């Protein structure tokens, strides 16, 4: 009974914690411009993150070491440094976007400009990371993120043309007033949102923080294979809400306020309050995850003592890296750069950096020296290899498509 | 979890980051209008952006009590800012020929009306709420239609 409760709690946490500012922005934006014709990308992205998060969780549980710890050892310092540089850049951009997202949610609730909330969000996040235990922190914000289920409730109450939405999803095509390059640019952004690199670093480092062993593999797999697909369902609900409300008017969503409008129209003020709460929880939770991911990857690469399971004084450089990441990201968002634009760019750069993140995971999960009997099976390898080819293509196309489409304009 | 770090090359990630940031900056650039056709396309894109902001504002005003006042205020502020920004950017593009003058003027009249309507609604929300909701929805719907029509004509 106790174990079943732990599994359920883990699944709910993975479900509620799946959506972040990238998923919110990408799905709402794509839904408003392309309807459900890019829903297939969400499915591809969710399968991809499941495949690689399972491998990352297995690596952590079997070897007791997180992904980045093994990257430099397995790939060497030079390749590892390229990996570190790209990951840090994407992480800090994502962190800035998450802080901005949480501040924007507070602006929606209070009407006070988001820039005034940015320092408060950053300081609170840093205090939470400093004081709150890893497990409590992860569970609390993951469970609070479940409030975003209100997107699905609102969709039902909006009484959409279900047949039309299914038709768009089942027979994807480029809309008449959009070009193919723009369609694929947003497909890449959507994939970047679903397979954000920090998720893998956080998932595997979190496994070590929680002292996973081989016995925890079942729990890890339940989180990944049930929690993440449920999160993907939420992504589809966000896109469907935007498609229902904005597509008929050809209105393009470009702010967080607009993204939650379908919920207000479908579920009223209670729905609006819930969705703002959910957006805050999701983005604040992701702020913690991205900041920790930056510090994890940096510390693990340089071989510093890391983690929240030791006292801060024993992991001083890890906590300093955490603080610097927060300061840089906060400064970036305080320059008045639009957080939604920062998110859009971070999604594309995430997509461009995907092979750097996922190749080491595939290599280590396939290495019997590290994994022993828990090395990848044929199916995992086949799926992982197919995804690697896809990710390389996506990575090569991301920046040229961004330039060709003027960032999707 | 401790390992001794070797000497590391620091140039590659920095070059990668600089390249990506340069690419991002280039992607956001606004180019001048090369000829009448190009100017028309820019006008159509501007009309679409303003139509989008107007459509969202119409939906929000239509929503009535389902939206809280601070939230409606944020939405309308965003709409006004967005329309002002589009107006400012389009006004900065010089018409390349006489035919383009008329196109530019027609668009700026439309987007000016949109800006006034949205700013007026924002003022009402800040004071005592939207006075004539049905009238405002009708006006925004009409503006949206006109802007869409303009965009279709010049695309």
Automatic annotation (TrEMBL), chain A:
Superkingdom of the source species? Bacteria
User: Any idea which UniProt keywords this protein has?
Assistant: Membrane, Transmembrane, Transmembrane helix, Transport
| Primary localization | membrane
The places in or outside the cell where this protein is found are: Membrane
**Where do transmembrane segments lie in this chain?**
38-60, 81-105, 111-128, 140-158, 183-203, 224-247, 259-280, 316-335, 347-365, 385-404
Q: Which GO terms describe its biological process?
A: iron ion transmembrane transport
Protein name as catalogued: Mn2+/Fe2+ NRAMP family transporter
Q: Which organism is it from?
A: Planomonospora venezuelensis
From TrEMBL, chain B:
Q: Does the keyword Signal apply?
A: yes
Under the heading PROSITE patterns, the entry gives:
PROKAR_LIPOPROTEIN
Query: Which N-terminal stretch is annotated as signal sequence?
Result: 1-27
- Key words, A-Z: Signal
Q: What superkingdom heads the lineage?
A: Bacteria
Q: What is this protein called?
A: Lipoprotein
Q: Which organism is it from?
A: Planomonospora venezuelensis
Task: Please spell out the taxonomic lineage of the organism that makes this protein.
Answer: Bacteria, Bacillati, Actinomycetota, Actinomycetes, Streptosporangiales
